[in-house]
């Protein structure tokens, strides 16, 4: 298979290596695999809801889960209306697309019309849907840093606009033939676009909102650790579509990414458990779930570019920076509630840079990394990671300030004390007896006692 040009190949969304000199025909096998992969990635957002929901206090569990579920609607519709066009349309600049595909105009069942039109073997409409699932979960990831204190209306406005501004810019630069793609940066399935982007946005959001009122004064313990384990399992299951589907074809590169998605988090889990044993003498379930997710994060940018043996090494290495950043955060005044930055930000940076270390052209057919003698690729990957930090950090900060001019970002102290479930949704994840909350006040005539004879 001949590569038309390096710039075009860099533009291949999610690093697909299914390309040819002439535009191929639609493939039934590729289409079937991508239908499955799209469904798997969509499942990751409910999986994230369980992962995050189990790690918070009971009085905010429902609110935390709703932050993920709401993204399915608000971010998904924004992507279909305008986000996809701004992120991945053929026109526009090196930093943002145009509106040629807005409202899904010219997005049909043909395998042409996108930034990678000449290399698709799946319908354009399916390609758009697959990309949508990535945007949804990226926005939902941010919620883990602001639980217990961000007002739900402000959150909805923020993630909706963030999806077609900050996310769209990163997607265009990396996957849409933009600035970083032309520079030669590689990101198979989202180290920069998804994880660094979401992790840095979460860090900025946590700093802008400030810590929870009980932070540092009260132990804020997970209310349902089995939920967190279930969420981690669903995330891992969905991640096979996330990485394996990023080949955009049922081919060898997709198989490589699939296997690497098994091996890397296994290695991270082992190293994380050993670190816990060395430090405390115990292996916690929350730590195991966290290690799995960080391994998945780290392998994402490299999944289709490195050999399975190096995937194990990458997963093992990735445990260290995230583990110690998480410990540092716990001792600081930074209330990144569920350590989104330590997990996704640091994990994404680690994976992006190590992609430039372990990549081999003999494996991926495209480019070499440091192990094959190309040190320059490490520098390019580091530059891409730094650019993601800058774009996401600045864009998120400005957007949060804009949202705060429209509606308050933070719940009141009284609302925090009561719990975000009741104050933001009028319902609770758990109730006791016949009812725990009063949904509607009774008329005064009913509440007023009847006069008794002789009184």
Number of strand elements: 0
Indicate the mean pLDDT: 89
Radius of gyration: 23 Å
Reported for the largest beta sheet, the result is: none
Report how far apart the termini are.
98 Å
- The proportion of residues forming helix, as a percent range, comes to 55-70%
**Uncertain runs with pLDDT below 50, 5 residues or more?**
1-21
**Range of strand content:** under 5%
What is the succession of H and E elements? HHHHHHHHHHHHHHHHHH
Q: Given the helix and strand composition, which structural class is it? A: mainly alpha
Q: Total number of helical segments? A: 18
Shape: globular
Quick summary of this structure?
It contains 18 helices and no strands. It is an all-alpha fold and 455 residues long.
Describe this structure in words.
The protein is mainly α. It has helices spanning 6-10, 28-54, 61-88, 124-141, 152-164, 166-175, 179-183, 191-209, 225-244, 252-280, 285-299, 308-331, 340-358, 361-364, 376-406, 413-418, 420-425, 444-447.
Which helices and strands appear, and what pairs or packs with what?
Layout: H1 6-10, H2 28-54, H3 61-88, H4 124-141, H5 152-164, H6 166-175, H7 179-183, H8 191-209, H9 225-244, H10 252-280, H11 285-299, H12 308-331, H13 340-358, H14 361-364, H15 376-406, H16 413-418, H17 420-425, H18 444-447
């Amino acid at each position: 298979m001949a590569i038309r040009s390096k710039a075009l190949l860099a533009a291949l969304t999610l690093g697909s290596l299914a390309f040819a000199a002439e535009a191929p025909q639609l493939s039934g096998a590729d289409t079937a695999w991508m239908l499955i992969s799209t469904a798997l990635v969509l499942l990751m957002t409910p999986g994230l809801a369980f992962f995050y929901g189990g790690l918070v206090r009971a009085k905010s569990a429902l609110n935390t889960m709703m932050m993920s579920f709401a993204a399915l609607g608000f971010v998904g519709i924004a992507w279909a209306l305008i986000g996809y066009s701004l992120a991945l349309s053929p026109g526009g600049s090196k930093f943002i697309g145009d509106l040629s595909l807005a409202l899904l105009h010219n997005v049909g069942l043909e395998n042409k019309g996108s930034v990678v039109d000449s290399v698709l073997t799946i319908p354009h409409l399916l390609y758009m849907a697959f990309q949508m699932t990535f945007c949804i979960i990226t926005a939902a990831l941010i919620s883990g840093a602001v639980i217990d204190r961000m007002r739900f209306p402000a959150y909805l406005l923020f993630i909706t606009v963030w999806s077609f501004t900050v996310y769209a810019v990163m997607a265009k630069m990396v996957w849409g033939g933009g600035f970083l793609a032309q520079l030669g940066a590689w990101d198979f399935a989202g180290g920069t676009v998804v994880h660094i982007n979401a992790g840095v946005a979460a860090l900025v959001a946590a700093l802008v909102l400030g810590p929870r009122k009980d932070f540092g004064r009260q132990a804020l313990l997970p209310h349902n650790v089995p939920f967190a384990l279930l969420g981690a399992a669903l995330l891992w299951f969905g991640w096979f579509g996330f990485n394996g589907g990023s080949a955009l074809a049922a081919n060898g590169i997709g198989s490589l990414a699939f296997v690497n998605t098994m091996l890397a988090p296994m290695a991270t889990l082992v190293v994380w458990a050993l670190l816990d044993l060395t430090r405390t003498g115990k292996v916690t379930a929350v730590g195991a779930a966290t290690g799995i997710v960080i391994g998945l994060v780290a392998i994402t940018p490299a999944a289709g570019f490195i050999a399975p043996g190096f995937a194990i090494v990458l997963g093992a290495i990735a445990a260290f920076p995230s583990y110690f950043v998480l410990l540092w955060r716990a001792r600081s005044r930074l209330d990144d509630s569920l350590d989104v930055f330590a997990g996704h930000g640091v994990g994404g940076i680690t994976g992006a840079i190590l992609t430039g270390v372990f990549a081999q052209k003999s494996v991926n057919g495209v480019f070499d990394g440091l192990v094959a003698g190309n040190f320059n690729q490490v520098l390019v990957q580091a530059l891409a990671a730094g650019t993601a930090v800058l774009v996401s950090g600045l864009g998120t900060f400005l957007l949060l300030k804009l949202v705060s001019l429209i509606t308050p970002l933070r719940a009141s102290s009284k609302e925090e004390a009561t719990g975000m479930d009741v104050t933001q949704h009028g319902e609770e994840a758990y109730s006791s007896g016949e009812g725990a909350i009063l949904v509607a006040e009774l008329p005064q005539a009913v509440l007023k006692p009847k006069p008794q004879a002789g009184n």
